[in-house]
Amino acid sequence: MDQKILSLAAEKTADKLQEFLQTLREGDLTNLLQNQAVKGKVAGALLRAIFKGSPCSEEAGTLRRRKIYTCCIQLVESGDLQKEIASEIIGLLMLEAHHFPGPLLVELANEFISAVREGSLVNGKSLELLPIILTALATKKENLAYGKGVLSGEECKKQLINTLCSGRWDQQYVIQLTSMFKDVPLTAEEVEFVVEKALSMFSKMNLQEIPPLVYQLLVLSSKGSRKSVLEGIIAFFSALDKQHNEEQSGDELLDVVTVPSGELRHVEGTIILHIVFAIKLDYELGRELVKHLKVGQQGDSNNNLSPFSIALLLSVTRIQRFQDQVLDLLKTSVVKSFKDLQLLQGSKFLQNLVPHRSYVSTMILEVVKNSVHSWDHVTQGLVELGFILMDSYGPKKVLDGKTIETSPSLSRMPNQHACKLGANILLETFKVHVDVHSHYNSVANETFCLEIMDSLRRCLSQQADVRLMLYEGFYDVLRRNSQLANSVMQTLLSQLKQFYEPKPDLLPPLKLEACILTQGDKISLQEPLDYLLCCIQHCLAWYKNTVIPLQQGEEEEEEEEAFYEDLDDILESITNRMIKSELEDFELDKSADFSQSTSIGIKNNICAFLVMGVCEVLIEYNFSISSFSKNRFEDILSLFMCYKKLSDILNEKAGKAKTKMANKTSDSLLSMKFVSSLLTALFRDSIQSHQESLSVLRSSNEFMRYAVNVALQKVQQLKETGHVSGPDGQNPEKIFQNLCDITRVLLWRYTSIPTSVEESGKKEKGKSISLLCLEGLQKIFSAVQQFYQPKIQQFLRALDVTDKEGEEREDADVSVTQRTAFQIRQFQRSLLNLLSSQEEDFNSKEALLLVTVLTSLSKLLEPSSPQFVQMLSWTSKICKENSREDALFCKSLMNLLFSLHVSYKSPVILLRDLSQDIHGHLGDIDQDVEVEKTNHFAIVNLRTAAPTVCLLVLSQAEKVLEEVDWLITKLKGQVSQETLSEEASSQATLPNQPVEKAIIMQLGTLLTFFHELVQTALPSGSCVDTLLKDLCKMYTTLTALVRYYLQVCQSSGGIPKNMEKLVKLSGSHLTPLCYSFISYVQNKSKSLNYTGEKKEKPAAVATAMARVLRETKPIPNLIFAIEQYEKFLIHLSKKSKVNLMQHMKLSTSRDFKIKGNILDMVLREDGEDENEEGTASEHGGQNKEPAKKKRKK
User: I want to staple 64 with a disulfide (CB 3.0 to 4.6 A). Which of 54, 194, 264, 1076 is the partner?
Assistant: First the structure.
């Protein structure tokens, strides 16, 4: 039969073929075709012949074709055919599909859709035909019956696609189905159907199948729906990341993790590469990505950013067109995130309203961690971002060596955090990607080190700075390579011998002249002899403690040990002869020249510092070998007297000359470990056998003060640089241990011997030891929080002197808050004792330090703890009950009160109370009005009310306004991102009600705060200037709130009643008073013009005029802010159908007229001033202009 069909098909006309095909029974043809195809025979020729004999112009031919199509599709799907034959059949079906009439195309398409929905496809090969059928259908212009209606071919195609996308897709055909649509002409709506369906399948697929599906979606996105594709991919992987992190950080007993970490990261990396490749081909996709992630900047940047989206953005930076804008977007997001964090951490009010969320900085560091999984395309962007953050937000050097902030408009803390994040990104990236080989070969190491030693020896002939670096580094070299001990010590011994006077009777024992280099008129230090001795002393001590115990009984080392004995003998000889030497022996007595302008003066200064350094080194050396010998301690005191004499002379000379040297103190050469041991011995050693020898050192208050001062210097150095000078000065662990020991001693000394007790005895110059101890504690508490935050618990435990080793386990459960509260109580007692003294006996310095210490410690209290509430109550009580006229003390105490208050709740009520106190003490702008004094806080008095407290409360009000403004911006951002449908909007506004209510409450209470201050007779100067600026901010924030309600009032059904009350309050209690205050300020400037000018000197008048100009400058800005507020209120009234303007009196402050008689008088005075006072008249003329204006009554 097949041969006959083929021979008939070979004829020129198809008539006989058609006749023959019509004679066949229904199943014959399909059975024939099936047998031929399965046997692997040439089915293509038979199929072509059948199509030739089945023209679509005849109904019978069309129906035959239809059956053949169904048969072929089943054959291909069965999997019984060879691959080549299946492909040939599908190819022929594709070629003939466009001949089908519309109704049959619809039938064929529905067959496919049913197969997909029922899951009856076997291998999906036949799906290649579906896009051809849909495309052919779209070209049919005639109306087709579809369901119960009649549709065009294009509309039928749309319905079929909709039906296909709304049905079930088998997981294994998702990629094929998505890929299929790239060959179908689609409208934007149809693309959206397909994209939504494909994205919804992500969660049902295996992770490894998602990258090819993403690839097909990205290809499809060239037809439209780019935004949906990107949003869907980012949302899916962001959620997967979040789920994965929760699983990893969750219950450790969970054995089953949904996705292995490595597999997830590799898949994400592949997808990121697909997206970047797609963006290179379609820049519109890149623009959509940046636009989508930028939307988050308006509201909450954390909504759209996640580790996955950040990694994607960083990869996109490799495309030059997008590099700058992407890095700028990330940089802005980082700083915005840190600003948000700063606001939230500093405000309990915001913490209660805004849920905790992760921050961009955390996400970026997570990307660094994930980038180890072959994310080379991300690494480059990470490094660039790290450098950009450091460059943009790090301090910049200027010519004089000082640092300046690059962006003064940004607050300092977010800048510092952004810079630190940049450094962390670089550090962690290198840690993750640098392959460190740590094979150790001791012989090779020793040989290598000895070669380096030869090079270092040559450095000892270099300039002083190079030698100094060597001396500071030798100790660490020894500690890490003990086999180099002999080599290093020999080097140091031979270097010392160049400057050591070997004859035992000669004074002084050191050749200071040899340490100084003279080149013509230029004098400079050649050999830092004090640092050389310091290095020798530490290396010798290390050798005695480490090497000698290991060499006991080894005779062959005796010759080499002679070097160490030599060094001991030399140091002993130097000590004895330094004690015997007078300052005249060094030519450094009081009569010597120490000026910085002469060669001899410079030389004497260098020599003096060398001698002082040598004395310090010898003090430490003798203490370390003393074994508490009384003679040794007498030597130490003699060495200190030599040091002190020189120090006094230098300070005296520098003070007279008023040079920079007066404030400069050189770094002490005492090691931090020694300072710790010395302070412990001086103040805490109670061992009976030590008392007689220690009494020698304790007899000198000067020496004890010096020991505490050096401790202060070390802590200051730590605060400024993060390390200290001397051995182990770069070792955080050792520094921390020394800090704990020093703090324990200083704390005991301060609490045991109060300043009042110490100062009631003999009066000495300088601060008392107790006060120095307190200053040290203040610096240490600050430094520990700066550098050792994770070790706070350990630090506080170390301070507890009652803590015995046996009780350590029991005390392990004591919280940081409890330990801190214990320390706080000691300082509270001290402050209360101070405040109980008379005003004239009040020690202001100590009080300031105590408040600073309390401020530092209070940061360690958990804000939700009873101890924190107790601290807040105590501080509030102190402010309420104690009246001191010391402005600095008042400022620091009030700052403490506010810092505690904002961590507990919003300070607006506190601000209102304080404003009433200020108003009561300073009086009203209307002199006829007598203000009732409230006296909420005794700390507010006539002396402190202005400018101290006034500026403090205004500063806090600014922060509250900033918080409110931030919340309004956040609400606006949410509104702009919401769906425009009325239903979605009405649902979305409900969660915002608590935030809106909180905003209105804050602004309402702040309004009463400003209501008090604008009626207060504030003195001219910063208070008036700041109040006017803050009033401007208040109206700007009110305007922002009004504009927010303009956005939402239709969807939320009007504006809330409490918003109406706020507007009413602003109209009755603030705006009219603002205009009165403006008149008050302007009248003060007029009175200054007419009364001050003739009596005062020109310079004084000029200064006063400049101040008036500064005060009146914000007035136009304030009036503009008020008018903007009223303008938007009018808009809101119209939109909400509520008359909000009934509470407002329209402003008239800008209306004025020129009065001729006043103008003439002013002009005459100007002429007289020019003759009398010259340049001062310029200022006067400018400030008389307000006299031309008069407010309407």
Answer: 54
